[in-house]
Amino acid sequence: MADLKKISELPPSIAASEQDIYPVVQNGNTLNQTLEKLRQAIIGGWQTHVSSFLSSADALAARTSIGLGAVNNTADASKPVSTAQQAAIISSLASFGLGATSAPVITDYNAVSTGGFYRDQGNSANSPLAAGSVGVLLNIQYSTAGQLQLVARLTSITAANQLFWRSRAGGIWAGWRELAPLDSPVFTSPIRLSQYTMATLPSASAYPGSIIDVTNATGGPKACRSDSSAWKILNTTTTVS
User: Fold this and answer.
1) Cα 161 from Cα 142, distance rounded (Å)
2) Where are the alpha helices (DSSP H) in the chain?
3) How many CB atoms lie within 10 A of CB 97?
C-alpha cells in the first residue's frame, strides 16, 4: 500500500498542458479528453446564453434569455400562496366568523372586544334576546373604549324576527334599543312620537295613517293622525288647531 501523504507534503504541481488527457464521465461512459477540448466545451455551452444576454434590448429580455424572466417582476396577483399560508389565513378569518360555516360562540356580550361576527346560543350574559333565543352578533370596534353591536334573533317565524343595537363610548355601554318593523311594530318600551308645532306640521297627504305629536295645539299637546287630508286629534274627527 502506498504511503499516505498530506496535500501540503505533495510536490509542487506542474502547469497543465492543453494536450493533457483527463478522464470525463459522460452518459455513464468514461472518456479521455484533452484539457483543450474540455475548455472549448465549457465555453461553447455558455456562448449562446452570454451572447443572447449581451444583445438583449432591456433588463427583462436579458433575464429571460438566461431563464430568469420571472425574477423581480412577478405581480402580487401571480405570486402563489402555499397550502400552509392558505390554511393559516382561513383559520385567522374563521376566528372572526368570516369564511366559516359557523361563527365563534360568545358567552357575554360585554366581553366581546374584537370586530367580527359571533353567535349567541341562547345563554349569553348581557344579551338583549329572551332567554333561550339564539342570535348572531355583528361587533364593530371604534377603539378599545368604543364599539357598536348589532344583534339579530334567529327564527323561522316572520313575526318573531327581532333586531337590536347598542353602542359604547368612553368604556360605558348604552342600553339596548330594538328596531321595530314598519309592517308590524312591537315596542318593548315607551315610544316618543315625532314632535311638531302648528307652524311646522308636515303635509297630511304625504303621510297618510302616520301619527305625530303637536306640542302647541289648543289646550295642550295632542297626538294626531293623518287621514290624508288633515291631522286629526287621535280617536276624534277634530282637526288639530
Assistant:
1) 27
2) 35-54, 59-65, 83-94
3) 19
Please name the residue that has the C-alpha cell 366559516.
100
Three cell numbers written together for 63: 433575464
Cα dihedral 148, 154, 160, 164 in deg (nearest 10): 0
Distance CA 96, CA 185 (A): 32
Which residue do the cell numbers 360568545 mark? 106
- Alpha-carbon span 58 to 65, nearest angstrom: 11
Q: What is the pLDDT of residues 74-116, one digit of tens each?
A: 677 777 778 888 888 878 877 777 777 888 999 999 999 999 9
User: What is the pTM (predicted TM-score) of this model?
Assistant: 0.49
C-alpha distances out from residue 153 to 77, 96, 131, 196, Å:
40, 19, 11, 34
Provide φ and ψ at 209, rounded to 5°: 80, -5
For residue 23, which phi and psi values (nearest 5 degrees)? Answer: -75, 135
Evaluate whether 214 touches 224 at the Cβ level (below 8 Å).
yes
- 8 A C-beta contact, residue 36 and residue 27: no
Looking up cell 364599539 gives 147
- pLDDT tens digits, residue range 1-24? 566 767 667 666 666 666 766 677
Rounded to whole angstroms, how far apart are CA atoms 176 and 192?
Answer: 16
What is the distance between the alpha carbons of residues 49 and 65, in angstroms, rounded to a whole number? 7
